[in-house]
Each structure stands twice: as structure tokens, then as C-alpha cells.
From TrEMBL:
Belongs to the strumpellin family. It holds the Pfam family HA. InterPro entries: Helicase_assoc (IPR005114), WASH_strumpellin (IPR019393). Residues 76-147, 154-223, 234-306 form the Helicase-associated domain. One of its GO terms (biological process) is regulation of actin nucleation. It comes from Aphanomyces astaci. GO terms for cellular component: endosome; WASH complex. This is Helicase-associated domain-containing protein.
Amino acid sequence: MLLEVVQIARSIQSSTSDYVNFPARFTVPDVTPWPKSLRGRTIQVARVRRQFKDGVLPTAVVEALNNVGFVWDAKQHNWTLRVLALKTYKSLYHNLLVPYEFTVPPHAATWSRDLWGCKLGVAVTNIRSRAHQLPPDRKAELDALGFVWDSHELTFDIKVLALNTYKQLHGHVHVPFEFKVPDTHPSWPPTCWKLKLGRAVHDLRCRGDHLTPERRDVLDALGYVPLFVWDSHELNWDMKLQALATFKQVFGGTLVVPQDFVVPSTAPWPQRSWSMKLVGQAVTNMRFRADSMSAERHAQLEAIGFIWDYPELRVDAGVLLQIKSIAACEFDKENTNNHILLGSSNEDHINAFNDDASSNRIIKANISNTTSDRRDLMELGFLAEENDCGQSLLRLVSRGSAIIAELLRLSNNIPGIFLGSAFVEDPEQRKYLDILFDFAYLKNPEEFENRVNSDTDLLDVDDEFMGNHEDILDRFYQLFDSIYKYIQDFLAFCDQLEKGFFIQHNLANILLNTDGAQLLCEALYLYGVMLLLLDQRIPGPARERMVIAFFRNKGESALENIDEVCKLCRVTGFLPGSPKPAQYPERYFKRFAPPKEVVSMVIGKLQTDDVYLQEPAFPHRDHRSTRLAAQASVLYVVLYFAPDILIHEKSTMREIVDRHFNDNFIITTYMGNVADLSLEWAPYPAARLALANTLEVSNLVEIVKAKMHTSASSIVSLTHFLTEGVLTEQYVLENIDALLDCIRTANVTIRWTILHSRMQETIPMMNHSGDQRRVFDKGTDPDRLVTLLLQTSQLEWKLKHEFERLLAAKEDRWQHCINETCDRLSELSEYFTGEKPLTRVERNEDLIKWFADTSAKVRQQYLPVTFLWLL
């Protein structure tokens, strides 16, 4: 039976493998091509392997199984395949520095079929982490192959080799950050091909203080000191200074640097500055940081005529684009005022450019020609492609929405093993609980690793777990890392805004712009929503287990932001379905706190303005809370960044509640997520006091009564509009305002009723009163709500199709009317020839009456008195 099963398995696997590898117990599948007589039967493969090891298996059976490639020792077979993979990798890439993410490409002719899809990078990492457990013969086999036990040491040697090669080719080791060693280039050693040398040099500088003295000596020995510059800021300063001096030399005494100017890769530009972007913003930053700049750098800039005191820092695109025409003029070098004025175009300061009259005329002409260009650029709006500030903020908000979408997707697919034993449905999965650790692992990782490594069964379970869950762990970690990067990018944007990086924009004028205010508020709002949803949808203990599992699988060196991700994912004390811990979520929000000024300005904007301009859509005063619902959700989340307002500022909270929550206290915070303010704001004195007015029973009675009346009147109107024969084309066009008002009112009522149906049985902040719920239940009728919902949707559907039909026929009707008008005008023209009567005239009582009345009025006219007096 075993031989028959093995032969069938060989025929199935022949296209992807040269071997037949069975698990310890194999159950024959109930599908073709397995024989029906064998389906469902279990074969003890481990027993057969044990018989072979003991030498009691018949020779004929052994030979037959060998002929089809039966695997007698699964662990040894896996080891053999790994060694084969390493040999193949070395033959292809000339080294064994296998990246962690490297996977053998499928269907690659240079790789054995049994290696297709093998995650070789993961396997190499596991071998290194368990080097002390390898048998001596296996370790010797790897040593003979040239296996890299310490990847950092060999990587450093390769970097030094690459730096030496770079020095031979370029004469220095000032490697640009984006430089990458070319592939298959004869001037470069094969071990260096595709190495991101610029990034590697940057990393060496960042870790300079942690490098051993021997490694620092190796780098310093690359050439004359200080050829390898440890301080990249000092290197950048020297490069910028030389580039400025060369720019001044090339373009004459006056220097205006375009925003997108790139240093040419030709003489006389310094070779190490080739392809460097010399941006006018760099000069602006120098002015802003003048007070903190060293005296030495001050003197260096003044030596080339740098202007420190300049009132208006505005980049004029027209002047910058005309640099070549300015430079083409013959400047009088002796009369030239050697000043550098970058990013300026104010006519009051033209003399600062050059004293030569001819060049002044050129610059004046350029300024006058570009005044309208600048105005056009400003009129393009905050979201124009040329507006770096608007585009940066727009991309940030777009990323935030994408991250939240991924968070919601993944939160619905959390493996139960990460949530705890209570969520594990499959008993086979419980064995993984012993190798899943929380952040306690980080305090003493050796203890936890020894616990796993000392137990052979746990090692197998650990390998099995990583193999089964690696992909989902990678997605979750990428999610956590993306959230952290979003937070950092938002904080970086705020920092750039504060320091004047975006010359034409600051926090105040962004909030004065409609698009800018919406995007800035949403950027901060999405930041808060990410934190809330992360804690609500992926519990803290599950996050910690995921991060540690991924950390153990990848290794610390492969995770760039592991410390920050741990800080983000650390448990907060909150668990879904349990009471909130004290000072939650404000303490959670302070882990990566945004600037207080940004939070304050955003809250002020949301507190007083209609950010989304919804008044035309909801003009009625009773619809105010619906009109402001979107920004009320934003305000609710953003207030957690300023808990002092919720706790202490009673007047501010009273204003917020009166404007946004005067008739509602259950709101949507994000798609599918609802917040009950009577619960969420209960721990905050100022917020609780302000919301108490809304929760008063007398106030709620009036609100429910108004909603009942609105619901009844809406049903009457909807019933009339939906009566057969009412919604004709003419009726729709003449009563469009009434129809839309009915739909608007019905939707507002439906929204309020559905949201507040989630009201608690008792409200804690109102002394656990249950009167509010009783008032709501008494005043609302579920059957009436369903009727209102169905009729509203039916009317919306009918109106939608009527409008679609009207719009589809609009062009034909327009053309018909044009043709009819032209024909009638032509006929009227022919009528006045006196030769042709009007043939298109049909009897029209209205026109008969109008012309008769007009005739009578004409007869009653008399000559004005003033005209008679003149006669």
C-alpha cells in the first residue's frame, strides 16, 4: 500500500520536485487520482522510516522507494536543500550575504525545482541565530562553503572594498546618498554589485560613535584625513559653500538660484557637488538660523557677500527661469556689487542685484513680466501641483486613509492564537501559546530564547509557527510601521511649517484657506483615529505578541524602527468590552504628541467655523448638528490631544457643545464606529458639565417631540410625492426645492433616530438615570422609522432616475429649441418682405390676450408735459 501511495504522489509532484516527502502521518485524500480503496486511510510514514533506520525494512521495498525519490529523513533532506540553495546563491551572486527578504524565484532554470519559492533569507537568519546548536559536521560544511556567521563583519568588509573602489574611480569618498553600485560593471568587484553605497556611508556616519576603534581606523585610513567625513552636516555645508561660490563665478556678480537648479556634472563645478540640488530654500534656512550659526560659518558666508537682513523671502519663478538671459549680459565686473540675494524679486531691492544699469533693466523687465505669473501661481490654489505645501498635506491625508483601510482589513483577520487561549478554536493551535511572548521578552530575551532552544519540540513548533504565520505577521508589522511613519511625517510637516520651510505658508494662513483647513484638520484627525482604531480593533496583548514574534523571526538589525513601533504598540490597559482605564486615551495620545500650537489652532478652527461649508446643503437651523456632523467627529477625536480643555475649560466646552452637540450626543467617529459622549466624556469635568444640558430630560423630551412631528409630516409629504402620476417631468422641474427639502428633512430625522437608538439604558454622568432612554423609547416608533426609511429611499431612487433621464435628453432638447427658433426667425424675416404669410402660427389664447392688452395700453399713452412745453 505504501509503495502505491508513494508512486501516485511522485506522479503528482513530478513537475515541481525530484523527491517525495511525506509527513509523519499521511491520510490519503478523498480526491482523484487516489484509489477509492485507499481514500481516507492513514499511513504511519514515521514507522516505515524507523524500520528503515533499524534495518528491518525489506531490501526490495527500500530499492523501490529509492527509485521514486522517497525521503527517508525529512530533517536531513531539508538541510541538504538549504546547502544546495546556498551553493546556488553563491554561484549566482558571488557571496553568501543573503538578504532577509530573498525568496528563490519560481520557475527559475538556474535553481533546482525543489528550491522554487524557498525563503532562503529566513533560513539563513535561523541558521545564524541557532549556530550554537548546530552539529559540528554541519557547521564545518557551512564553513567550507564560506557561510557568513557574522553578517555585520562581512558587510563592513564589503563596504570598505566598495569605498576603496569608489575612491579609485572618483578620487574621494564623498558618496551621494542615492548612489548605488552598478550591476555587472567591470570596474566594481562582483561582491559589491547592487550595494546601496550612499545609504551605507550614511549609516556608518550615524553609528560613528558606536563603531570600534579598529573600524574607525580602517575608514580613516582610506586616504588623507578627513577624507571619510564622519559629520555629514559638515560635509554638506562645505559642498553648499563651494557650490554657491561656483554659481556666483559662473553667473556673474548677481546670484539668483532657481528652486529646481541642479549642479551640472561639468567643470568648473566641484566634482563632489555634481548632480546636487542647490535649492533657494537652503539659503532661506541659513537666514532663519543665523542666530544659532557659528561665527566661523557666519564669516564664510559674509566673505562671499551673503545678505542676512532681507525682509521678504519670496521665490519669483519668472526671475529664476531667466537666469541664463541675465548671465548672458556683459556685466561690468568692476562696478558689480558682489552680493548674493537668493529667492528674492522685490523691485525695491533691485540695486542689491547689480549696480550696472543694463543688467538692472533686464531684471526689472523680468520682474514686471513675472508679476502676473506669480499672481497666477497664487490663484492656482492650495492644491495646485506647484504648491509643495498643499501637495505634501494632500499626500499625507491620502496615506492616512489608506493606512486606516488596511487596519480595518487586517483587524478582521487576526489569528486567534494572538488574542489568547480563549480565542483558539483548533486544539492543534494551542501548542503555539508556549512560543508567543509579550514585551516582557525585551527585558531578558536570552531567558526566553533558552527556554525555546532547550526543548527540541518547542524548536519544531517555533519553526512551524513562523512558517505558517510569517506573511500575516509581516503585514501586521508593516501596518504598525506605517502608522509610526505617518505620525513622524505629520510631525515633520508641522516642524517644517513652524521653521518656514514652505515660504508662502504658515499655520495661520493654511487654516484661512478652505482646502488647507480641511486637510490640516483631517491630518490630525486621522492621526487620532489610527490610535483609537488600533487599540479598539487590535488589542494591546495581541499587538505585543505580533511584534515580538516578528522581531524574533526577523532579527533586530532588519527592523529599522523597532523601538518606536514597540512604543506605539505597547499595551494601554484598554481592552474591548472592558471599562476604560484612568486617563485613557489621553496618555496613549501623548506617546507621540503633536505640537500644542497646531492642536490649539485646529480646535479653534473647528470650534467656530464651518470647515466643510455645508450650510448650502443644510440651510435650516434645525439641521445644524447634521450640517456640522463631519467636523464634530473631527473635533471629538482632536480634543483627546488637548485633555486640559475636556477637564478644565468649561466655557470652551460649553461653546463646543452648544454649537455641535446641542441636540445629539451619539456621533460617528469614523466609518462604522460610533461614540456615545455620555460615556466617553464622563471622566472629564468640563465636558461632563457642558453635555449635561443636552442630556437633561426636559431637553430630550422637546427633541424627541420635534423628531416625532418631523417624522409624521415627512411621511405625509413622501406619500403624496410617491402617489402614482405625481412625479411627472413638469412637476419635478417646478417643485425641485420642495422635493429636496423633504428628502433632506427625512434623512436628518432618520440619522438622529438610528444613532440615538444606541442610547444606554442608564446614563452614568446623569446619576445613572434611565429617564432619557424611556423618553426616547416612548417617543419613537420603529415601524414609523422603517416606513420613513423605505419611502425616502424610494423617492430618492425615483428622483435620481428622473434627473438621469432629463440630463440624457438635455442636449437633444436644446438642439431642437435652437432649430425651432432659427426657423421661426427666418420665417419672420421672410414675412416682412410682404411676399409670404406666416404659416407656423397656431391659435394661442394667452398671446391673443397679451397683444390685446398691450394695444390698449399703447392707446392710453399721452405726450409727456415736458415735450409739449418744448413745442
